[in-house]
Each structure stands twice: as C-alpha cells, then as structure tokens.
Amino acid sequence: MSAGFGGDEPVDAVTARGRDWPCLQQFIVFLENKVGALHELLRNVERDDLKIMALSILDSSDSAIARLITNSYERTRELLVLSSLPFTECEVIGVLLPNVDQPHANICGCLMSAELNVHYIYPLMYRRGRRGAVAVYVDDVDEALRVLKEQQHEFVTEDDLLEYDDMFE
User: Are 145 and 135 in contact (CB under 8 A)?
Assistant: First the structure.
C-alpha cells in the first residue's frame, strides 16, 4: 500500500492499477525441459477452472519458459505460489486487432513510429466484435499505451478477460 493522493488514506496497488488498467499481467513460468512438465502446469491451471487466454512457449535444451495469461490474475498467482514453481510476472499490453488489411503491421508500425522496441507479440484467445487480439511486450508500457491510444487502438483489460465467454462471440 502507498500513501493516497491527499496523503491521508492509503491506496491499494490494485486500486491504483486495477482491472480496467489497459495492461494484462503475464506469468512467466520456468519449467524443466522434460516430458510432462508443461502438461502438469496446464492441467493444474485448467483443473482450477481457469481459462488460458494466451500461451507462448520458449524451449531450450534444458529448460522451457511458458508465458501464460489467464482470465483471473489473482487466482492464477495464488495457484503458482502454492505449486512452488519458479515464476515471475510482468505487464503486457492487450490490443484488439484493428479492422484493416494488415492489422499486425499496423500495431507494430505505430510502436515503431514512437521508436519503441517490441520484444515479443503473441495471440490472445480473445475476440470482440469478430476481431482477435494480441499481447505485446515493449520497453516502455506507458509510452506504448499513449501511442496506441492516440492512433485509436482498443485495449483488452483484465476485466475483459474475467468476463469473457466465447460462447457468445
């Protein structure tokens, strides 16, 4: 908790950057590169009735890194802590693909015009109005949000994921 704007009341970090903050929390889980390690992680997540909204795997000879976004940040964090798997977390920007001929190039072009470095981008299993979405990891989140908003891009928030039911899309 930190001091409030007036200095009187503490402000919880969740309130300061709550569910409507236009970023998503991504979990980066470190796994041994052995048969069944990824299956065990995914089984535990889905057994707890969480929906996997994005998944990206980076594999090497002795380890693997799973980037994971679910529909409930708090429950996933609790599950990972209890599982004793080594993990870290960071913010990614959830962006709806624009309705243009080259939607991915459009997003990357906006970020490039602001000289922002895109470290990686991968699809979200989320749709709104027949449009898909991507998770984008950049050097400067605040500047990327400003540039994308200025170019009228729409964001995917944690609220969107929590309330998402693809049966009605």
Answer: no
- DSSP H helical ranges for 3-72: 13-16, 37-47
Report the pLDDT value the prediction gives residue 63, as an integer from 0 to 100. 87
Give the pLDDT confidence score for residue 20 in this predicted structure: 53
Average pLDDT, the chain: 86
Give CA–CA dist 69/16, Å, rounded: 21
- Average pLDDT value for residue range 122-141: 94
Poorest-confidence range of 3-12, 77-86, 103-112? Answer: 3-12
Residue pair 99/52 in contact by the 8 Å Cβ criterion: no
Residues 6+ positions from 16 with CB-CB distance below 8 Å: 2
List, as own/partner pairs, every contact residues 114-120 make where C-beta atoms lie below 8 angstroms and the sequence separation is at least 24, other chains included. 114/143, 114/144, 114/147, 116/140, 116/143, 116/144, 116/147, 120/56
Please report the beta strands in the chain, taking only residues with DSSP state E, as ranges in sequence order. 2-3, 10-11, 24-32, 52-59, 63-70, 87-96, 118-128, 131-138, 155-156
124 and 134 Cβ atoms separated by less than 8 Å = yes
